[in-house]
Amino acid sequence: MLDERSKRVLCAVVQNYIRYPDPVGSGTVAKTHPIGLSPATIRNIMADLEEMGYLTHPHTSAGRVPTDRGYRLYVDSLLSERSYSGGDLLYVLYKFYKNLEVLRHNIDMLFSEVTRTTSMLSHYLGVAMSPKPDITTLSRIELFKYKLDTVTAIVFTAEGIIKNKVVSFDAEVTQRDLNKIAQYLNSEFSGWTFEEIRLKVLKEMSREKNICDRLISKAIKICQEAFFSPHGDLFISGLSEVLDLPDFADLRKIKELSRAIEKKHTIIKLLDKLSDLHGVQVIIGSENSMDELKTMSLVVASCKDASRPIGMIGIIGPTRMNYSKAISIVDTTVKLVTKILSEK
Q1: pTM above 0.85, yes or no
Q2: What DSSP line would sit under 262-286, residue for residue?
Q3: What pLDDT, on a 0 to 100 scale, did the predictor assign at position 211?
Q4: CATH number of the domain at 134-227, please?
Q5: What is the mean pLDDT of residues 215-235?
Q6: What residue segments make up the domains of the chain, in order of their start?
Q7: pLDDT surpassing 80 at residue 139
Q8: Between helices 4-19 and 39-51, what is the axis angle to 10°?
Q9: How many CB atoms within 10 Å of residue 6?
């Protein structure tokens, strides 16, 4: 455990380094933070913090920078004391809430707008994951011919959510066929959860070779595409915002971030593990299970209807992240989106 003086010095170093990406010296801490200690005393405390693994000392500089362990202590103090605040940010987010209300029934557009706005406010990557299909109940499905071998499926749920899926076919299908398939699916599965539909279709697939009706066979294909994802859909926005940061001046870090974005399934699994936890979760640098995120941090929280997770919202940025602002954005946005999604 650190004593109070050491915590104050550590927090001062973290805050300075977040503000300016240069190693922090004892003189800078003494000037910018009124903690009542001389530069010499601060220098000794910083040396002790380095020995304990909270700070590190770049060999080209006399100053020090936080380690992941140092960021962790700083973030834990923010979360435990709730010492992050929205300020003017809250006003912007509540205006944003008014704009989101009109998107309540289109979950894809809602989360797309959420990621765009959180990225714009934080200057990091905005990420979101829609509710899991297994807790979503089908109201009806509509099918429309899109291209020669492509169909658009519009899924209306009992929770008042609309989802769009593009389904590819090996063979051409007519709009008349699609109307018949939609009529069949609605009569068979309206009121079923996506998980129940998935299990039923798996059973039908096992005997598909005995199905003579080609439309029922096509209906099974549509169900595979529209209802088979075990996770929600992932939304990511703001790559240009992140690449403007000095932290990504290194081409290697840009490649790591690009690879992380490409591995959407891995990010979905990471978010899925955190979905049952309450409150804002902060995963810092080396704490990440994804190798591509070892130099980045994730701030995320789950939207919940009662105790049921109905989506995830978060921010991905460098470990030198403005954690106070990021936590505030995620915390407030999750509360607003939860309110929107919980309205029937």
Answers
A1: no
A2: H-HHHHHHHHHHHTTS-S-EEEEGG
A3: 46
A4: 3.30.390.60
A5: 70
A6: 4-66, 88-132+231-342, 134-227
A7: yes
A8: 90
A9: 17
In single-letter form, the type of residue at position 26 comes to S
C-alpha to C-alpha distance for 314 and 298, rounded to whole angstroms: 7
Please say whether the structural domain 4-66 has been given the CATH code 1.10.10.10: yes
In this prediction, residue 212 carries a pLDDT of 46
What does the mean pLDDT of the chain come to? 83
Going by their DSSP bridges, the two strands 125-129 and 138-147 should be labelled as unpaired
The residue among 336, 295, 341, 300 whose CA lies nearest residue 319 is 295
Q: Which residue has the tokens 């008014």?
A: 98
For the chain, count helices (H), then strands (E).
13, 10
Burial class (CB in 10 A: 0-12, 13-18, 19+), 85: exposed
For residue 144, the cross-strand partners are: 152
Q: Which amino acid is at 2?
A: L
Type and span of the H or E element at 257: helix 251-262
Q: Distance between CA atoms of 215 and 131, rounded to whole angstroms?
A: 30
How many Cα atoms within 13 Å fall on the side-chain side of residue 12?
27
Q: How is residue 237 written in tokens? A: 């926005």
Q: List, in sequence order, every residue forming a beta bridge with 237; answer none if it has no partner.
A: 126
Fold of domain 88-132+231-342: Beta-Lactamase (3.30.450)
